[in-house]
Model the fold of this input.
Amino acid sequence: MLTLASIVFSVKAHAQSPNVVADVAPIHSLVAQVMKGVGKPALLVPAKVSPHGHALKVSQMRALTQADVVFWVGEALTPWLEKALDRLPEDAEAVELLDADGLNLLTYDTDEEEGDDHDEHEDHDDHHHDHDHAGLDPHIWLDPANAKVLIDAIANTLAQRDAANAERYKTNAETAKETLEKLLTDTHSATKAIKDKRYIVYHDGYRYFEAQFGLGRAVAIADGHAAKPGAKRLIAIRKTVSELSPRCIFSESQFETRPVQSLLRGTDATEAQLDPMGQSIEPGPHLYETLIRNLTNTFTRCLK
Ligand SMILES: [Zn+2]
Done:
């Protein structure tokens, strides 16, 4: 029998669970796993929309003004979100996941930028601030080992914010990390056969997946911010394509396929579509695992 005290307690516990917003669907999925049984996070960037160069809508602004906690990758992925986060309620917290301890971080064009100019970084800690992410590839979720780090960062933040449910967040995090560990093992064995294959991707967003699973570096039609490729870049890529004769050219549902179609002409390459944001998947706790498994299937089917 429910006593009055237990009813009051459960209502109160529910009312206290924080309003949580996540920026993009893969991050939203990780947050949803941590919040299982406590509440559901809101998704800021709708699944069908590319986060690169998105503009905030009124309804999204409203979700932010009601947020207690916002998890976002960082301005390297969604520069348009940074200003909006200034308008969060005073006691709300925005957690920039690129700052999470223990992430394996990759930069764009490391080879070209890394030299013997280490002096520049000497006072790094003194100058460190939230915006020190120049050149960083923000597609961190495409490495499930990074997803494990993000799970801990999310669970720790929520446990501090919502002490009543701290145990639940931590138990959920352990379960989520076990699933991710299995996902890592499965993906490593699935990608063994495609390690030396050559391929083209639409935008430069797959470094984390390639690095974790030992795939060759893709040639990208568009850069990591998915800026529309100019004529010069397209000419260079066309040349690369004819030299490499890649097995596959991967388009993405979030971007127009015309540059891919035009590159395909006159090659033996096959076209397949990658979905690095989980646009074809129902948002929620299962999206993340499905995203990685779909990505793996698309790569292996086309490149084998
Ligand atoms: Zn991207």
User: Anything to note?
Assistant: Residues 166-191 form the longest helix (26 residues). The longest strand covers residues 199-203.
